[in-house]
Specification:
The structure holds two protein chains of two kinds. Chain A is an alpha+beta fold. Helix content of chain A is 53%, strand content 12%. In chain A, the strands form five sheets. Chain A has a seven-stranded antiparallel β-sheet with strand order 7-11-14-8-2-19-18, with helices on one face. A five-stranded antiparallel β-sheet of chain A has the order 10-3-17-20-21, with helices on one face. In chain A, strands 6-12-13-9 form a four-stranded antiparallel β-sheet, with no helix packed on it. In chain A, strand 18 and strand 19 form a beta hairpin. The longest helix of chain A is centred in the C-terminal third of the chain and has 40 residues. Chain A is extended and about 120 Å long. In chain A, 32% of the residues are buried. By secondary structure, chain B is of the alpha+beta class. In chain B, the strands form four sheets. In chain B, strands 2, 4, 6, 7, 9 and 10 form a six-stranded mixed β-sheet that branches. In chain B, strands 15-14-13-16-17 form a five-stranded mixed β-sheet, with helices on both faces. In chain B, helix 2 runs antiparallel to helix 3 and helix 6 runs antiparallel to helix 7. The N terminus of chain B is likely disordered. Classes of the chains: A alpha+beta, B alpha+beta. Chains A and B meet through helix 5, helix 6, helix 7, helix 17 and helix 20 of A and helix 2, helix 3, strand 5, strand 7 and strand 8 of B.
């Protein structure tokens, strides 16, 4: 492939990657998407290596420069109109205008400035995409863009250099000299350029991680679409959660950095969101809407009243990467004691639910520390429990219910002697006596819970949890309904839980005067639907990469940099400690040796030691030299380094001959080639013949070579070089 | 042109030196000294494209800081990495190059000749791209138009350029300047290499006026007397005598006359010419003095072609008679380096000038070339064969 064709190809790939980045954001209108794609495909077909014609002399689309200018002016007017009246936003309007500019440049790619403009447009496209997305595909597009950039800039530079040289009116015939024009792309050039791209990629990552994050966020506009959730607002209608139980959208990913080996059992993990206390027969709500701010330590740790801020975070740590949900609720395993995240304020209500002061506009990460609930033994066995009046009033509230509910509660707990046993009995009854199903029909019922308990006996988590709360309250046990998420799917590759919309769940918290609120879940566990193992595995791998992308690229922050610096310092201290330990051991060893050798060298201690050290160094040097030589000769396949050198000298002779246009044909032997040299250039034949003879002896006869013979071979090669140089000079002059 | 026409001057290998001397003035001082040492031969500046690139990078940096968007930081890192790669690769491009300056053995003022560079890439694997080689003369650089796009590893190339030097004298070159915009054309990196060379530029050889040539021919003929002796031109044919060299036998005549005949050659009786150029001249006559030097050199070249033995009286210095290329080059060399004396005139002529009258008396051709009418030379003018004023020759 010629360099010019390669330049056009790489330029088009560069533009394609910029366009692809914008297209994948989903912000491009269909018309521009089709027009851009068609133009890029036409350009690629025009430049493709298999295309017969030579592209550089022609543009894809011929219109006069004036016509293009008029079209561009119209496009600009369209951009202004788009900005002011249609999109009413600079970014979408700018993106539309960029696509039009790209199409224009692709169709008229001719001069240097056309290429430069196209590169700038492509970069702006990638830049715009960066403001519109945080998805994993951006990594792939960015990698392709970087590779294409290296190729393009390199080829663009070489083309300019060749043009500059041609413009400098060189001596006649100089244009044909390979040193004055880039020749066809060779394998060496291909790999060298890819090597440069790989180096640039590594350097990019290094600079990315080391650049201080001092973002002020003045003009940050995040356009990520929020995920709609159900069950975490002030009032939740019974039955609304069923709509999202089939939604596969990922809402959270949860890691347990401190518990990599012994993970908490999934059946005991409930990522708690909001708790409700008032049920009116059709919907749940909260009686007290009072929210207070959570105190924050200087280290940025929000600590709830139940935990001690002085002791630092304790309990089960979870690193939660949460998508942009349309709720201010923060989730954490029951019961959250401390939270740390990139937010300045945090609020809580009396049920322990956590709220951000604003709805998050983008995916973000935070850490939560949770203390699990547990019923104390005395309360587990206590026949009666006395509750505060406030608790009783708030969490024993009941809507108008038929006597059947109360009768059912008494019937179920007939055998139970303690409040705890009654709770467990109700839980067991619901788990075992009812069928879990999302298909409960759309018929409107006056009392959906009673319908669930006595008629249909089929429902999902909301029905189970509501029924249990009502049954407990009829028995005089304070209880409330809690909404949140189950752990979801375990990703073994990334060692984290992937929580989707379908994992939204409702469960029950019952109150114990000393133990506090304790979690109970009356919903029977439902086996996950069978899926293709291969696809599921691949999906987990991709999701794991996505988490890493989010964790280390999108969410990378100053805090991570500080942590990294601390890690480096700790490791260096460890290494330093080990080095000191080794030095101490060595000193001890030398002291022991010295003590043992003392009887044998009573007077010449320093001299003896110096002698030993020198001897040891000399032996090590000898061994190193021997290994080095052995490796080198072994690598080249020859018994001695001299033989390898002789073969190398012969290959250099071939290179020298090549500069004079004498190329050894692949099928010819060394002797035949020496004959060709003697025939075509008799002066060189005087050097080439003995060198070839020497080479044949070594290469095919494995003959040993004396230093004199090697020196002779070098002299022959030098003579040949001098001869070539003089011939070149003669030709030049 | 033959190889002998060139002299291979000193070569310079661009390699990282391993002999670094650091004085113990603290760590930062050492680092500073190291960088000063390392970059003593380097300079770098932005190209037009590079300026645009840097402005774009700064804009992305500002956007990244303002938004805190890590993807913008990623783009910023990419742009910065391209800048760093530019520095690394351009440095690699300029390393391990072996450059020899090829200057001609002789050069005359205002006569085009050919100079050259032998450029060898000694890197084992990496090629060198986009290399310009220039001569450095003091603070200025002279672009010879030597521009390589691609030099493969272990390859050598010879690049020539036309060399035209306007003035006689010592032409001194201080160093080389290597320039590259590789790999992306964002920066122009220069390596300044100390590679000193000197070339003695002979005075300009100009064609002599017809009238002067006629006079010189007349004067020359008055001196010549044909006689037998070693030479090339045929003097006589005679019969072979014992002791004659077999090489002297003229075979055609021998065959025609059926007896051995030998040829005798005409002795090339060396005709002698002395060129006298006074160096004392007032400041105002510097241009005329230069013309006088050029005229003297032109006369020397003329008489060299005529086979004369030439002597040069240059100021107080007398170069004795001699002939052949080596001798005439010695004369050119002396003329190339001679300088005008500041004194306007002197009452006493140097002793060497007194030999002119004696030489003229012996029948030698003596020519006085003068740039101005020096009254001090009045007695000398009467003693020489011919006085040539610069104005006459121009």
């Amino acid at each position: 492939m010629t360099p010019d064709r390669a330049l056009r190809l790489s330029s088009t790939i560069l533009a394609s990657s910029g366009f692809l980045a914008l297209a994948l954001t989903g912000e491009l209108p269909g018309l521009l998407l089709v027009a851009g794609t068609a133009t890029l495909l036409a350009c690629l077909a025009h430049i493709a290596p298999w295309a017969a014609h030579e592209p550089p002399t022609t543009t894809l689309f011929r219109l006069s420069r004036q016509t293009w200018n008029v079209l561009l002016l119209m496009a600009f007017a369209g951009f202004v109109a788009d900005w002011l009246w249609m999109s009413m936003d600079l970014l979408p309007a700018g993106i539309h205008f960029l696509i039009l500019l790209m199409i224009s440049k692709l169709l008229t790619l001719q001069d240097r400035k056309d290429f430069l403009h196209l590169y700038a447009i492509s970069l702006l496209e990638l830049l715009s995409a960066a403001a519109l997305t945080t998805e994993l595909w951006y990594a792939a597009v960015f990698t392709v863009f970087l590779l294409a950039t290296i190729w393009t800039l390199l080829l663009y530079h070489l083309r300019n250099e060749a043009e500059d040289f041609a413009g400098a009116r060189p001596a006649p015939g100089a244009e044909d000299d390979p040193v004055h024009r880039p020749g066809p792309l060779t394998g060496r050039f291909f790999w060298t350029t890819n090597g440069i791209a790989a180096g640039a990629f590594c350097l990019t990552l290094a600079i990315f991680f080391l650049t201080p994050r001092i973002g002020a966020g003045f003009f940050n506009k995040n356009r990520v679409e929020q995920i709609r959730t159900t069950g975490f607002s002030e009032q939740v209608d019974l039955g609304t959660m069923g709509a999202i139980k089939l939604d596969q959208t990922v809402v959270m990913r949860v890691e347990f950095p401190d518990r990599q080996e012994s993970l908490p059992p999934a059946e005991r993990l409930y990522f708690r969101g909001v708790a409700f206390d008032v049920y009116n027969g059709r919907s749940w709500s909260k009686s007290a809407g009072e929210r207070r701010f959570v105190g924050r330590t200087t280290e940025g740790l929000f600590t709830l009243a139940s935990a001690s801020p002085r002791e630092g975070p304790s309990g089960l740590r979870q690193d939660i990467l949460i998508e942009a949900l349309d709720t201010t609720t923060l989730f954490g395993a029951s019961f959250v004691a401390s939270v740390r995240g990139a937010f300045d304020l945090l609020r809580t209500d009396e049920t322990g639910a956590l709220f951000l002061p604003y709805t998050p506009l983008s995916r973000f990460q935070y850490s939560a520390w949770s203390v699990p609930d547990r019923v104390q033994d005395d309360e587990r066995t206590a026949r009666t429990l006395s509750y505060d009046q406030g608790i009783a009033e708030q969490f024993l509230q009941l809507p108008d219910l038929s006597p059947n509910v109360s009768a059912l509660a008494k019937q179920v707990t007939e055998q139970a002697r303690t409040p705890y046993d009654r709770i467990v009995a109700v839980e067991g009854h619901l788990r075992n006596g009812y069928r879990y199903s999302l298909d409960i029909g759309m018929t409107a019922s006056a009392n959906p819970v009673e319908e669930f308990l006595f008629v249909r006996k089929t429902g999902y988590c909301e029905h189970y949890a509501t029924a249990m709360v009502l049954l407990l309250r009829t028995l005089g046990i304070p209880a409330r309904l809690v909404t949140g998420f189950l752990p979801g799917e375990w990703n073994g590759f990334g060692r984290y839980y992937t929580i989707r919309q379908r994992d939204a769940h409702a469960w029950v918290e019952a109150y114990f005067p000393t133990s506090g609120w304790v979690t109970f879940d009356p919903t029977p566990s439902v086996p996950p639907a069978a899926s293709n193992q291969l696809w599921a595995g691949a999906g987990k791998v991709v999701d794991s990469i996505r988490l890493k992308w989010d964790r280390f690229i999108i969410q990378y922050s100053l805090r991570d940099q500080i942590k990294m610096a601390q890690g480096v310092r700790e490791r260096s201290e460890k290494v330093q400690g080990r080095a000191f330990g080794l030095a101490a051991t060595a000193r001890q060893w030398i002291a022991d040796l010295h003590a043992r050798l003392r009887p044998f060298m009573p007077k010449l201690e320093p001299l003896w030691l110096a002698g030993w050290a020198s001897g040891l160094a000399a032996i090590l040097a000898l061994v190193w030299t021997w290994i080095h030589r052995h490796r080198r000769s072994h690598r080249s396949g020859f018994a001695t380094p001299r033989q390898a050198t002789a073969v190398r000298l012969y290959s250099r002779m071939l290179q020298v001959m090549e500069t004079r246009g004498l190329v050894k044909a692949p099928g010819s032997t060394a002797i035949e080639f020496a004959g060709v040299i003697a025939r075509d250039w008799s002066e060189a034949g005087r050097y080439a013949a003995p060198l070839t003879e020497l080479y044949c002896r070594v290469r095919f006869g494995q003959a040993p070579l004396s230093p004199e013979e090697l020196a002779q071979a070098e002299a022959l090669l030098n003579g040949l070089r001098d001869l070539t140089l003089h011939r070149q000079m003669e030709e030049v002059l | 042109m033959k190889r002998e026409a060139f002299v291979l001057t000193r070569d310079f290998t661009v390699q990282p030196s391993s002999t670094l001397r650091l004085t113990p003035h603290g760590f930062f001082e050492r680092v500073r000294q190291f960088f000063r040492w390392f970059y003593r031969y380097r300079s770098i500046r932005l190209t037009q494209d590079g300026t645009r690139f840097v402005i774009l990078t700064l804009a992305i940096g500002v956007a990244a800081i303002n938004t805190g968007n890590n993807l913008l930081y990623l783009l910023l890192a990419m742009m910065l990495s391209l800048i760093v790669m530019s520095g690394v690769l351009s440095e690699q491009c300029l390393r391990q190059l072996e450059i020899r300056r090829l200057l001609p053995r002789e050069a005359f003022a205002n006569r085009p000749t050919t100079g050259g560079f032998s450029i060898a890439n000694r890197k084992p694997r990496l090629p060198t791209f986009s290399l310009r080689v220039m001569d450095a003369l003091g603070a200025t650089t002279i672009d010879r138009g030597v521009h390589l796009i691609h030099l493969p590893p272990q390859a050598v190339t010879v690049q020539s350029y036309p060399l035209l030097i306007a003035r006689r004298g010592l032409y001194r070159l201080d160093g080389l300047k290597l320039l590259t915009r590789f790999p992306f054309g964002l920066f122009l990196k220069a390596a300044n290499l100390p590679l000193e060379d000197e070339l003695v530029v002979y005075p300009e050889i100009r064609p002599l006026p017809e009238r002067l040539l006629h006079d010189l021919a007349t004067l020359g003929h008055e001196q010549s007397t044909p006689r037998r002796g070693p030479g090339v031109a045929l003097y006589n044919l005679r019969g072979y005598q014992a002791g004659d060299e077999s090489r002297a036998i003229h075979w055609k005549t021998s065959a025609r006359q059926a007896k051995l005949m030998v040829k005798e050659t005409e002795a090339e009786d060396q005709r002698h010419v002395t060129l006298a150029l006074p160096t004392d001249a007032p400041d105002a006559t510097q241009a005329q003095f230069e013309q006088a030097v050029a005229l003297t050199a032109s006369l020397a070249a003329f008489f060299h072609e005529q086979g004369y033995a030439i002597s040069l009286l240059l100021g107080a210095h007398l170069l004795p008679y001699g002939s052949g290329s080596a001798h005439v080059h010695r004369l050119f060399h002396a003329l190339a380096l001679c300088q005008r004396s500041r004194s306007a005139s002197s009452d006493a002529l140097p002793a060497s000038w007194l030999t002119l009258a004696e030489r003229t008396g012996q029948g030698d051709l003596t020519l006085l070339v003068t740039s101005w009418n020096d009254p001090c030379l009045a007695p000398v003018k009467r003693q020489v064969s011919r006085v040539i004023m610069v104005a006459e020759a121009s």
